[in-house]
Amino acid sequence: WEVIKPYFMKHVDPAKKTSNMSSINQQQPRVLIPGIGNDPILLDLLREGYRDLTAFDYTENAISRQEDLLTYTSDGSEYVSLRVMDARKLDDDWSNEKFDAILEKGALDAIYLFGN
């Protein structure tokens, strides 16, 4: 998180209200984290002030771990929607979903670890 934080927050600042926000309350950027796995990045985002987070993973174990992390270390679980789903088979009800940013950490990790 510390490596990508300056870039992410520059473009998706939780303190700034912008005209293109898709959040219902128009106060917070709506952030999607697909394939959350066991990454604790939700805690980092909550600490930075993000309050409209949606994360999913195809394994129930990953989502259970995220729920446990949120319960044990944070009181921000009301700002996070966790779902068990496969990105290759998104439900039809996702066709109307809008997000201001997608934080796909797996690709970022690969770039960081393997360079250019």
Automatic annotation (TrEMBL):
Alphabetical GO biological process terms: methylation
Domain of life: Eukaryota
Gene Ontology terms for molecular function: methyltransferase activity
Assigned keywords, A-Z: Methyltransferase, Transferase
Family label: Belongs to the methyltransferase superfamily.
Name listed for the protein in its UniProt record: Methyltransferase type 11 domain-containing protein
Source organism: Eucampia antarctica
